[in-house]
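Quick one, tokens below. Sequence please?
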């Protein structure tokens, strides 16, 4: 039997209170010696936290800087934006601001959300491959009923289509939903469970399933997500003017195009999930600031940086993020500081998720421009030495 002395204190009546958080910190001090003084200093009401955290003990404070302004010409994000970035990496905010200035001088960045889905991918198991194949046809024939069963669980989620693969005697099925302004992982999990139960009850033969056969690749990068979007497929584009690049960045666009070719080859050789300089930096910093699920950085950072040198010497540059998972409603977005950062962007609440996605993609492009130029000019190491080290 486990020794009760080592059990983390919980209060079955009110576990989200200042007093209960203090009780747990005192328990941890007794068992580990850690004071947790700063962790216990916060302004958030613990009563707001059910559904976001368990065994609450305090708040880890993260520095937030603002980069910008950034001119975006999007279908959802249109205008001038100041972008909050939560990070402990020196030079990061300054670098993104530098890239944003270049974009602004070149007329702003164009952003487009191309498509958006969220998946759950159960595996249906049969006695042999023929049964699995026949089930796939039955599923297509009964899609309308499956869709109705799934959508009974949600007022927002819509089942759009199914993708299917047979392996051995198993049929893997990827259920593709739209989820409004929520990221939707839990939403589609609940909906797919209802759909699978309907299938099991109505399929004329024996039907066994596992709710996730791991082809949804939840919180994991996969090449499948590069092809079939998980989250939002969003593209940010800019044409870098040759004279602006020389004036502001001391970089010739021909040299930048050449370095992009070398970087593409290196990324391909390494099997990297992104061929640009550092998409994860901007995405992670924005995710932390705005209350996104930080684990989704692993899916969201994958993408493609494309370039084309124009006859006049200007350089077309674009970032495609095929699986950007963001939300402006639900999850951590309603917590006080995260909500403030979303409000700074005009992105809090319903009807704003595509706007946030466009801002994220535009920010990634700005960061890539800045870092690429720093590498080309040899300022990458010196800037970190000057601004990125604690004195």
């Amino acid at each position: 039997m486990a020794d009760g002395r080592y059990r983390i204190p919980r209060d079955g009546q009110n576990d989200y209170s200042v007093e209960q958080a203090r009780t747990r910190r005192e328990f941890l001090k007794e068992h580990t010696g850690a004071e947790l003084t700063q962790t216990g200093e916060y302004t958030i009401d613990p009563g707001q936290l059910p559904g976001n955290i368990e065994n609450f003990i305090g708040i880890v404070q993260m520095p937030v800087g603002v980069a910008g302004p950034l001119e975006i010409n999007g279908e959802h994000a249109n205008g001038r934006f100041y972008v909050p970035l939560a990070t402990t990496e020196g030079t990061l905010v300054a670098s993104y601001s530098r890239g944003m200035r270049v974009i602004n001088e070149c007329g702003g960045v164009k952003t487009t959300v191309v498509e958006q889905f969220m998946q759950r991918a159960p595996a249906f198991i049969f006695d042999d491959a023929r049964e699995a194949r026949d089930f796939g046809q039955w599923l297509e024939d009964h899609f309308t009923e499956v869709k109705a069963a799934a959508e009974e669980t949600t007022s927002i989620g819509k089942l759009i289509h199914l993708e299917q693969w047979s392996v051995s005697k198993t049929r893997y099925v990827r259920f593709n939903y739209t989820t409004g302004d929520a990221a939707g992982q839990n939403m589609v999990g609940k909906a797919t469970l209802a759909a699978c139960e309907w299938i099991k009850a109505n399929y004329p033969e024996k039907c066994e399933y596992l709710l996730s056969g791991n082809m949804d690749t939840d919180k994991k990068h996969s090449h499948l997500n590069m092809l079939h979007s998980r989250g939002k497929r969003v593209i940010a584009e800019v044409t870098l003017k040759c004279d602006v690049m020389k004036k502001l960045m001391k970089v010739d666009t021909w040299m930048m195009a050449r370095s992009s070719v070398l970087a593409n080859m290196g990324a391909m050789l390494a099997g990297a999930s992104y061929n640009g300089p550092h998409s994860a930096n901007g995405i992670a910093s924005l995710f932390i600031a705005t209350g996104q699920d930080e684990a989704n950085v692993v899916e969201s950072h994958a993408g493609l940086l494309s370039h084309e040198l124009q006859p006049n010497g200007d350089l077309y540059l674009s970032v495609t993020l095929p699986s950007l998972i963001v939300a402006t409603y639900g999850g951590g977005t309603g917590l006080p500081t995260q909500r403030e950062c979303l409000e700074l962007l005009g992105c809090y609440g319903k009807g704003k998720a595509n706007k946030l996605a466009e801002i994220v993609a535009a920010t990634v492009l700005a960061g890539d421009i800045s870092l690429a130029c720093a590498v080309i000019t040899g300022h990458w190491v010196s800037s970190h030495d000057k601004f990125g080290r604690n004195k």
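The beta strands are 64-74, 78-86, 109-120, 123-125, 158-167, 170-178, 208-210, 231-240, 304-309, 315-324. The two ends are 50 Å apart (CA to CA).
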